[in-house]
Protein 1
Amino acid sequence: MRLRVPASMCLLLTIVAYLAELPEFQGMVTAERDSQEIRPIYIGGFFPIESHPFFASLPLTVQTAVNHVNNLTGILDGYELRMRWNWTQGSPANALRLLNDFVQNGPPVLMTWGPMFSSVAVVVNEVLPRYNIAQVVIASSTTLKDRARYPLTVQVSVDEDLLNPARVAFVKRMGWRRVALIFEDNQYFRQNMAKLAEKLLENGITVLTTEAVTNAEHPDEQIQSLKRHDARVIITAFYPEPAAKLFCKVYTAKLFGAKYVWILPGWYPDGWWRDLPDVPCDNEETATALDLHVAFDGDQAVSEVSRIDFNGVKPFPEQIEYLESLHNMEDNSRDIYAYDCLFTMALALNASIGELRQLDPARRLDEFNYGDQEMAQILLRNTLQTEFVGLTDRVVIGKGGVRHTTVYVEQLQNEHPVRILNYFADGEYETIPNATIQWKGSVIPVDGKTEIPILTQISLPFQISIYTAAGIGVMLSVIFLALNIALRNQRAIKISSPIINNLIVMGCLLLYTSVFVSGVDTSGITDGAFIVLCYVKVGLVCVGISLSFGSLLVKTYRIFAIFQKAVARFKKIDLPDKKLMSVVMALVLVDCVIVTLWVFLGQSTIRTINLDPKLSDTASPESETYIIPVLRQCGSIYEIYFTCAIYAFKGILLVFGVFLSWEIRNVSVTGLNDSKYIAFSVYIVGITIVLAVPALQVFVNNVDIHFCIFGVAIVFANTVVLCLVFVPKFALCYSSRGSQLHISLMDAPSVPTTSTSLPASCRDRNRLGELRDTLRQKQESLADLLRACQAQAK
Ligand SMILES: *[C@@H]1O[C@H](CO)[C@@H](O)[C@H](O)[C@H]1NC(C)=O
Ligand SMILES: *[C@@H]1O[C@H](CO)[C@@H](O)[C@H](O)[C@H]1NC(C)=O
Ligand SMILES: *[C@@H]1O[C@H](CO)[C@@H](O)[C@H](O)[C@H]1NC(C)=O
Ligand SMILES: *[C@@H]1O[C@H](CO)[C@@H](O)[C@H](O)[C@H]1NC(C)=O
């Protein structure tokens, strides 16, 4: 026995030593021993496009992550993670075929990696829950957040909707109140933009237009619309290639430069616009249009690879080496998300192991089948609770199945994206040292023209000068009126019908008042008061003209009647002041009727006319603040008829007045009346009206000139008429000073002028004058008859 024991020991030792030198054999033994413990579990992989350089490396990256999981102690110990995968070529049909393959053949997959494209994910992920397969996807889409349709979907990449609060906060931070949206019309961007528009409106920001580009090749129409809306701050949502096409069009349409701010998604690969075959612009042109654009992204990479920590498990040095290489790779965002996506799944599976053991019956991960709802729920719950530091920094998934991310703002400076701001969920931004936002102009571009409507007002110098002139006119009228009343019994005044002259003064006073009314500062008054003012002005002008010009007219008519009828036909003419006054009053009545009808039938409204905008601050034209003078005018439905009625009425009077004045042009009786001056007054009024009315129409939109023409016309005509009517009379009255006055016909030089030096009583003088008048008239009639006879004789 003693001998046998050492002998057998020896043999055993030899075998052991032999085995140690045979690695294959050892492996076999290990495999044999572990076959009870290491259980393969499967996940599915939907990879996008094999031939595309952006995506070609993804399966390798994910497979490496799988290997890392398998080689790390502390994650899925006792299991071997394996991946069944294929390319979908970005087509939902292919993805469904692959899913069918997962379901029909081979071992079941517990979870899926991908799909990567949201267009594929929205189809496949709706089917996957039927087989209780949870999906962890890089795809992000508003649609995928519908928990009823996609109960088992978890998004580990930045959700486009997460960018929206940051975009809104940025727009507010820049002080913009107007933005425009343009997006590629697909499921991914459509809802995101709708939500953005909603959020903007909530924050009091106007969305000038939302342009959906259905044909990415031809966004021309949408670009024109942006131009039409004068959009300056434009938020875009496109995939990189359509975006490059868009910016080529932007370049052609010259919608770039200091006036425009383009806001893009920030997750495009570096230099995404370069060397694209279907973009008609060259790289520089597109880069010009893109220069200094602002982009939003939540994508991020961990600052130091050494910080990576899979929930307490640190990667091995060899793994760190690989992670380091991924971290330093240019344009690595897809690969680092792919890696972290796999680790999210692995950690969720690991965390589920214990819970599955608690189930009744207890289960292991490898015992999954497509009918196991309970297990799917556990996997989902653990996925939502994932928390680790990966290549994409902290991975924290919230209840909604969407990853929490810090959003940041970057700007393309010298063709390189520079991170300029970090956004915190509370609406605050943090600036990043040494990075400042740049603008092409000297200040932040404005969101568009600012137009400030201001009611036009007559400028002070014009108002003051016209008011002064009108004031002098009023004083003059009052003086004339006073003198006219005081001296009414003087013969020089008396024979020229002082009552009718008073009417002239009254009319002139009304007209002067209309000047004051039309110069009133209307900017502070209500529309109602403005309408009242309009009618007051119209009424004053109409009645004023009727009184003053009507009085002149009747006086002229009397002269005409006396000389053309009475003298020529030896008839006595009966035209006392009373009759004349009633004619004037009739004219005023017609005015009153027209204006009253206008007020009550016209249904007055206010017309506002926006005049040409003026730059408000010429020192800083980039602020684009314009002042729009707004003109208020009275309007009413029958305006044209009433205006025509008034013009026609006044026009007839005018023509009649001019005709009469012409007829009596040769009549001149000193002392008896002032026919020449009256005729001259009528001409003055006529000419003024003929010149002023069209001029007022021409300058209807220029309050200053309009007011000046109106004021000058009225003050001029009024004052001339007043002076012509009154000054000669007062002069005559002054020169005769109540002592003597004769009346003589002055028109014919052949008629001798009677001397004025007859001392007599006033009555005698009058009597004498009348007799002389009669004599003169007879002489004239005789002369006329003689002339007529001679003419007949010839
Ligand atoms: C697996 O892990 C061991 C250490 O546990 C390490 O030596 C080995 O290189 C790793 N293999 C791979 C392929 O990562
Ligand atoms: C992927 O699918 C194609 C056919 O669609 C098939 O030929 C190929 O073997 C599959 N590859 C893998 C890795 O399953
Ligand atoms: C994996 O699960 C085990 C328990 O099953 C746990 O002890 C371990 O901490 C988990 N690993 C990680 C990285 O969470
Ligand atoms: C900012 O610039 C200064 C000087 O150029 C430099 O010393 C500092 O390290 C920079 N800071 C960062 C965070 O880049």
Protein 2
Amino acid sequence: MHVHLARPDITVREWQAVKEVLFSQSLSMGPQTRAFEEAAARYVGTKYAVSVNSGTSGLHLLVRSLEIKKGDEVITTPFSFIASSNCILFENATPVFADIDPTTLNIDPDRIEEKITRRTKAILPVHVFGHPVNMDAIKSLADYYHLMIIEDACEAIGAEFHSQKAGTLGDGAVFAFYPNKQITTGEGGMIVTDNSEISKLCISMRNQGRGEDEGWLKHERIGFNYRMDEMSAALGLIQLERLEEILTKRETVASMYRERLQDLPEVTLPPVQPNVKTSWFVFVIRLDEKLDRDKIMSFLRSKGIECRPYFSPIHLQPAYRNLFHYRPGSFPVTEKISQSTLALPFYNNLTAEEIDYVVETLRIGIKKSP
Ligand SMILES: *Cc1c(COP(=O)(O)O)cnc(C)c1O
């Protein structure tokens, strides 16, 4: 049996929608993009939604629209996908890491205050694996120190913190639609905000800095080509219409794993917290420190089961070590947890048989481990 780590959930509806765009001959900056943006704003409950060609582009535009620049600092997590910190470097500002909470694996609000300096401009929390950050704590710090909040919701569309949707919890937020995310556009992302100035700047900067009338050769500022195309938007629109169905399927897969793994003392399951709704992005368990995680991973792979050590700490990536001279030990919680995480195959249409196979193989792997 071969079990994939992630798979998109594409139906005949998506196929039909993309085909219609191809026949319409309107392939960029057209009705699908506008419809997808309107639907996204409506779903999240923000005034504005601006589509872009990746989550990374969206984060970059948010940082830039907040005028974060050289000399400024942004506090963020070292336990994330590298884009959440790279977007700060793109504008020559400095990412300042705060270690994580060992339960939620999100940035630990109690470790943020000690990192705030005169240069701090913003906090960039990431809802890691779709589990919302404790935004009450982040917001009160941001209010007290007059900091902006950039919400990396790339893994968390549909998640809620105290019944408030991810994407509405900061000054601006970004969702990502790479094929392993909850919903996909192939490549793509969406910025959401209630701030008209941020929205205006993002719309201009994704489109070569054109002004509001989008006059073809009138460029008011330096911008980029971060536009989403019409095929992607058509795909995203259907996926967004199917979001509740998709999230329910993912919830079901997560509970099937939970049921089958709960009696294993060597396994820590993903957190469940009151007042929080997780939008399942991946299913990441943690293995007892005494086990050899990498050996268990090789064993699973030898049995046709794809798996990953999510995440490898950002500060220990060669690119960051070269720039900032981080060493092992800089963020001990992140580093320790990174050595024990294991992302199991996780996607909408994973069957009970496949889950049984993964769990049985994992049990054998754990028994074989020293
Ligand atoms: C997926 C993801 C992004 C953006 O990814 P793209 O591949 O650029 O769409 C950003 N931050 C996090 C935490 C992510 O998981």
Protein 3
Amino acid sequence: MKISNFREALRHIPAIHVLIQDPSMEAFAALMGRNTVLTSLRRGTEQLKASILSDPEYYRNHKIETSEDLFDHLMDLVLSLLEKQRLFALQPVINATGVVLHTNLGRAPLSQETLKQVMEVSTGYSNLEYDLDFGKRGSRYDHMEELLCRLTGAEAAMVVNNNAGAVFLCLNTFAKDKEVIVSRGEQVEIGGSFRVPEIIKESGCILKEVGTTNKTKCSDYEEAITENTSILLKVHTSNYKIIGFTSSVSLAEISIPEDRADILCMEDLGSGCLTDLSLFDLPREKTPMDSLKEGADLVTFSGDKLLGGAQAGIILGKRSLVEKIKKNHLARILRCDKMTIAALHSVLQIYDASEDPVSQIPSLTMLCEKIEVLEAKAKRLRQRVEEAGIESAALELLDVEEEAGGGSLPGVVLQGKAVALVSQTISPDDLRNRLRRSLNPIVCRISEDRVLFHVRTIREEEFDIIATELKKCWEAKP
Ligand SMILES: *Cc1c(COP(=O)(O)O)cnc(C)c1O
């Protein structure tokens, strides 16, 4: 029907119940729920009405000549509203970067087994803070303590929201208004928001730097000790390596005056690897067990780096110290919730019970994957993409270098395999952007004008989605 003035435009705005039947709306309803789509339809309709009322030339300026044009125009408006909402919502993403512990993409993925435990604990009630034995109030810290102690040999353990929180809490409990000695070579920054000097300051402590960037000796620590010293802190240089003319010392080598038993040795390990990765041709990472053996009084690490669990910060140490940390009022602010506890508990149980934890913890499986397995996987992905209708000339199998990511295994290069794609019609940047913004977002890298799909971090069940999304981009006009 023809539209020849703004009143007609207003009158022909379609009703919500008609709009919702459009196939594109159905796709969004499946993804985001019918109510979200209805809300966007109402909002879009209101916006269009307001625009037409405030500007009688609006329909002409937007080349709306018929009621069909008006329908399409409104649909575009609603789609962009939905698109915006979707982009800000937390949603699954396909990680084709090959970086296993990608902090921006959620670090360690969890197994179905682990998720089952999270479901069981969180769809109903749980004994989160309830002692089933005595029928009285219990502590959320109890659930994992025994397991953590058994796995690491620590006297006591505690789990908080993340490792930054764990470091903060330890410093704040024992070194408020006192000095914390750290080597200049260990002033680490992780992902912009965790900086050792800042965390020391924010926890109310005084930073005392010793040594130089490349060399710190025992005597540097020993000479820096004053009566106001409270903690000697070692920080794992998680995301960089100092090479060349270097030296650093372990906590075991530093001698603390005999009358200063109050000075604590603390190590922020970052990754918290609980298994020997050298069995899989990776360098052996220092473990929490190593730190404790060296004499650390307190050790902290993340739950979702090389441990492969949920976001959490784990504190290990002497019983008397951990009890004191639990009593710090700030612990309440940093406590983790039942879903985290359930997830982490499940992963720790795998370490405890399994002969081969690497095969049951997804992030470790990916990190330790053999090159032959990756090659076969890449071939299957290439074949799947070809079957979807992408010409084989555009596809290549590449050897690629990867990293563990997330502040783990610094300097370690992993050999991987990728499927590379070159399009004659779409630029690599354009293709990458489209894949990232698609209904099933895919995050990939570009190298030498090719879009790469690193198979290490792609799950087999994601191959079909990749093939379908690629096909859509392939056929779309540039
Ligand atoms: C990653 C890391 C942190 C921060 O851990 P989150 O769990 O991300 O808070 C702190 N220290 C070191 C050495 C790290 O590697």
